[in-house]
Specification:
Helices cover about 35% and strands about 20% of the residues. Helix 4 runs antiparallel to helix 6 and helix 6 packs antiparallel against helix 9. The N and C termini lie far apart (about 45 Å). Strand 4 and strand 5 (about 85-90) form a beta hairpin. The protein is an alpha+beta fold. The longest helix has 20 residues, at about 110-125. It folds into two domains: about 5-90, Phosphorylase Kinase, domain 1 (2-Layer Sandwich), CATH 3.30.200; about 95-269, Transferase(Phosphotransferase) domain 1 (Transferase(Phosphotransferase), domain 1). It binds adenosine-5'-triphosphate. Keywords: ATP-binding, Kinase, Nucleotide-binding, Serine/threonine-protein kinase, Transferase.
Length: about 270
């Protein structure tokens, strides 16, 4: 562990592991307050790879976006020859992925406050020219029972000075990734609205809108983008919720809602 980190924080138990690092709970030696610290061993990542760009992108983007009530706050970065330590707001309430597994299905009134906070954070990101590109329930953390915090900006990118322009490159997770990304086309910030639409659908239905037995089948289903609302899962879902889902999951990017349009939709009121 980097000496400077140890001087300021007492590093405690491991709370998670990702592709690039291990996350520990830590406490400030001054205030006694708890935080999370994501520690990356730079020796495990080859110098000029895409992965090494990812680890440096995350603190840079978090610094750009902080503070926002629904984005994990960054407090400090410590770097030495071998390690990068990112001190973050501690989000120790169950993440959305595990909530979905435990609950199965959310009612509209249960999903609304979660999705609203999510879209408020997405709108803030997009205004700053940041596209997350990997929104999925595993990256939606909670700092308390009902406060959403978007995390894991390792796949995010900054595009233009607050102006989001066209991007390329396949980034994301099969069920949640937008069709234009898979098609290898240029894409923009609306890929995050698509992913958020998939998240809302999964919460209301208990299963994803575009499904397949293998990764290739999932990709094919996403590319077809044939949105259905099976009666067994949607019989009690309101027409307004379905209307919003259609607008968030529009294959035609120009017709797909922006984050601000989603926030203004009647279902959100
Ligand atoms: N601020 C935080 N507070 C509490 N737990 C966190 C925090 N950030 C991350 N974690 C936990 O640590 C785990 C690893 O997080 P990390 O961001 O390194 O990777 P990841 O989300 O699994 O994504 P990837 O491997 O795609 O980068 C997460 O699954 C989460 O459970």
């Amino acid at each position: 562990m980097t000496e400077a980190l140890n001087r300021e924080y007492q590093v405690c138990e491991e709370i998670g592991r990702g592709r690039f690092g291990t996350v520990f709970r830590c406490t400030s030696r001054i205030s006694g307050e708890s935080f999370a610290v994501k520690s990356i061993d730079k020796r495990l990542i080859s110098g000029d790879s895409l992965d090494s760009q990812c680890i440096l992108t995350e603190p840079k983007i978090l610094q750009l976006l902080t503070p926002h009530h629904n984005i994990v706050q960054i407090f400090a970065v410590y770097e030495d020859q071998f390690h990068l330590h990112i001190v973050l707001e501690l989000c120790d309430s169950q993440d959305l992925y595990h909530r979905i597994i435990d609950k199965g299905v959310f009612s509209e009134s249960e999903s609304k406050p979660i999705v609203k906070q999510l879209v408020q954070a997405i709108s803030h990101m997009h205004k700053a020219g940041v596209v997350h590109r990997d929104l999925k329930p595993d990256n939606i953390l909670f700092s308390s029972e009902d406060t959403v915090k978007i995390s894991d900006f390792g796949s995010a990118d900054i595009v233009g000075g607050g102006e989001v322009v066209a991007m390329r490159g396949v980034v994301g997770t099969p069920y949640y990734v937008a069709p234009e990304v898979l098609a290898g086309m240029e894409y923009n910030e609306k890929v995050d609205v698509w992913s958020c639409g998939v998240i809302l659908y999964v919460m209301l239905a208990g299963f994803p809108p575009f499904y397949g037995e293998s990764v290739t089948d999932i990709f094919d289903a996403v590319l077809r983008g044939n949105l259905r609302f099976p009666t067994r899962a949607f019989h009690s879902v309101s027409p307004l919720a379905k209307d919003l889902l259609r607008r968030m999951l529009s294959k035609d990017v120009s017709r797909r809602f922006s984050a601000d349009q989603v926030l203004r939709h009647q279902w959100m009121q």
